[in-house]
Specification:
about 0% strand, mainly alpha, 6 helices
Length: about 110
């Protein structure tokens, strides 16, 4: 008797889970020295601004825990609040937006 491992499959329904691309994993793995700035949050800010067309104050209302200065510096891709991880996440997000925009909807869309 052994354990039957079923990866990328929902346990109850048996449906296959959506497989993410390596670029998405690269974006989500990025962590900054600050706990609230990570690849997922940076990607979410960039997603709502570049894909959904939200202005920075509207992004602030959706993505909680970030002030407007930090959001604007992340949207520019550099700045005092951005840091190296933010620049790397910005570049990775822009590559995803150019090459695999459907993956962004899967990860960040509601």
């Amino acid at each position: 008797m052994g354990i039957e491992y079923r990866f990328n499959e929902w346990r109850i329904s048996g449906e296959k889970a959506t497989i993410w691309s390596p670029k998405v994993y690269q974006l989500l793995r990025l962590n900054a020295s600050n706990e609230d700035i990570n690849g997922f949050n940076i990607g979410k800010i960039l997603y709502y601004h570049h894909v959904k067309g939200f202005s920075p104050p509207e992004v602030k209302d959706v993505v909680k825990g970030f002030n407007l200065i930090k959001i604007k510096s992340i949207l520019r891709g550099f700045g005092r609040h951005a840091g190296y991880e933010s620049v790397q996440a910005y570049n990775t997000f822009m590559e995803l937006l150019r090459d695999e925009p459907e993956m962004l909807d899967v990860v960040f869309g509601n």
